[in-house]
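Q: I'm building a small set of examples for a reading group on sequence design. Run inverse folding on the following structure and report the sequence directly after it, with nothing in between.
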């Protein structure tokens, strides 16, 4: 099975047929898809300027989509290296019990569904790398009461998500499943009760 880098080479290779180059970009999403496969694909297509069903997109647009995905992947891989190093140090210092961020992180190892979007057509507009930077920053600071990606205040507790966890606070503005560790207990409670969060 081809890895992300070999698939990326096929996307860039002008000797490959266009259908293979498009297919290889789709296969990259099996290795790294921050919003989930379908939502990440929709995001990349809209940002690069070709349709999700376009079977013959401009090769330059395919490469632009790949470059955005690669930048986001490098942001996430750097975070995973730092995360693993922190856990090693904590274990060395006797802290064996992982915290809530660690529990969340285990579900997203490798970057799949880091900022899960259950509706593939509703996802953040900005570059993937910037979205991940905002999410990582939120994971490394004290919990807040708004979406870490778009600062949206409308968090709605949603059930039966196509993801693990299958329930949680979804941002009504950008569509991500907000990681529970980045929200205060009050914000989580408000989302569960269906109340819109208000700025302090």
């Amino acid at each position: 099975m081809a890895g992300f880098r070999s698939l990326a080479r096929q996307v860039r290779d002008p000797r490959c047929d266009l259908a293979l180059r498009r297919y290889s970009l789709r296969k990259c999403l099996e290795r790294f898809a921050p919003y989930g496969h379908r939502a990440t694909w929709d995001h990349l297509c809209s940002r690069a300027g070709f349709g999700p069903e376009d079977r013959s997109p401009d090769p330059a647009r395919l490469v632009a989509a790949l470059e955005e995905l690669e930048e986001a992947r490098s942001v996430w891989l750097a975070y995973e290296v730092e995360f693993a190093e922190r856990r090693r140090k904590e274990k060395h210092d006797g802290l064996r019990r992982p915290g809530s961020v660690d529990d969340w992180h285990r579900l997203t190892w490798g970057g799949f569904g880091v900022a899960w979007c259950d509706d593939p057509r509703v996802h953040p507009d900005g570059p993937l790398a910037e979205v991940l930077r905002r999410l990582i920053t939120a994971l490394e600071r004290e919990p807040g009461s708004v979406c870490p990606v778009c600062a949206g205040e409308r968090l709605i507790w949603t059930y039966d998500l196509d993801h693990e966890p299958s329930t949680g606070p979804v941002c009504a503005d950008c569509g991500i499943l907000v990681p529970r560790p980045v929200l205060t207990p009050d914000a989580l409670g408000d989302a569960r009760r269906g109340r819109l969060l208000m700025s302090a």
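The radius of gyration is 18 Å.
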